[in-house]
Amino acid sequence: xxxxxxxxxxxxxxxxxxxxxxxxxxxxxxxxxxxxxxxxxxxxxxxxxxxxxxxxxxxxxxxxxxxxxxxxxxxxxxxxxxxxxxxxxxxxxxxxxxxxxxxxxxxxxxxxxxxxxxxxxxxxxxxxxxxxxxxxxxxxxxxxxxxxxxxxxxxxxxxxxxxxxxxxxxxxxxxxxxxxxxxxxxxxxxxxxxxxxxxxxxxxxxxxxxx
Length: 211
Description:
This protein has 2 helices and 5 strands, in the order αβββββα. By secondary structure, it is α+β, with helices and mostly antiparallel strands.
């Protein structure tokens, strides 16, 4: 009886070791592919907010961490610096609209250092389906209307929804969501406009943990 139990125990242990080894091997073999696919997806997203024609460097290779309340909170946000012939020309930067109707709205915003917005996309949100979710490109083109707009100053009154006297449409039955996004894009473009000289002194991505 004991001999049989030992045999079964040895068999189970061997099977567990083999399974663990195979799992580890699969992880090792697939990890480069997973990283490559993630990088490709990030590059596709960056291309939506920064026209590839305006820069000639590797955006993914020039990533910095920004911690500034102008980006909606003091959590780390990634910034991708675009260069042309070695000179900084624009950046794509993560930002947060903390005052959405159903919580924080995460954004990726492309802008140059003169306050010109080049593109904006929502990367995460919890807004109400059928109302606030019109900030998603797959549902409406509202988010594309920031492209080509310029933030002149922190007091620029055009950067508001029309209900507040600004230039951006609100949604029927939902003003809080677009108002939150408009304010976040304005703050973020203003941040880039003020901080060109300090960007290259920021910690590189990977030097500090993301939250």
